[in-house]
Amino acid sequence: MKPLQISADTAVKLAESLGVPLEHLMHMPQHILLQKIAELAKDEASKPAPSEGEQE
Fold first, then answer.
1. Which one has a higher pLDDT value, 52 or 26?
2. Can you state the angle between helices 8-18 and 30-46, rounded to 10 degrees?
3. What band does 43 get if pLDDT is binned at 50, 70 and 90?
4. Which residue in 6, 51, 31 sits closest to 14, CA to CA?
5. Would the pTM of this model clear 0.85, i.e. be above it?
6. Neighbour-count burial of 25, counting CB atoms closer than 10 A to its CB (0-12 exposed, 13-18 middle, 19+ buried)
7. 3-class SS at 53?
8. Those residues with Cβ within 8 angstroms of residue 24's Cβ, 6 or more apart along the chain or in another chain
9. Tens digit of pLDDT for each residue in 8-33?
10. Backbone torsions φ then ψ of 47, nearest 5 degrees
11. I need a labelling partner for 29 at 20 to 30 A (CA). Which of 11, 18, 21, 46 fits?
């Protein structure tokens, strides 16, 4: 199995978001990683968007 084709910055951000060590992320099978990214996206989509007055 070849390593994931993602940048170092993306790998670090994904590892932090998923709560896994970077080494585990880089050796994670691609189909499992895609499933976890889909779960993160679903969680993000379910969060209420800030209204225009509350933007940073």
1. 26
2. 70
3. confident
4. 6
5. no
6. buried
7. helix
8. 15
9. 898 899 999 889 999 998 888 889 99
10. -70, 140
11. 46
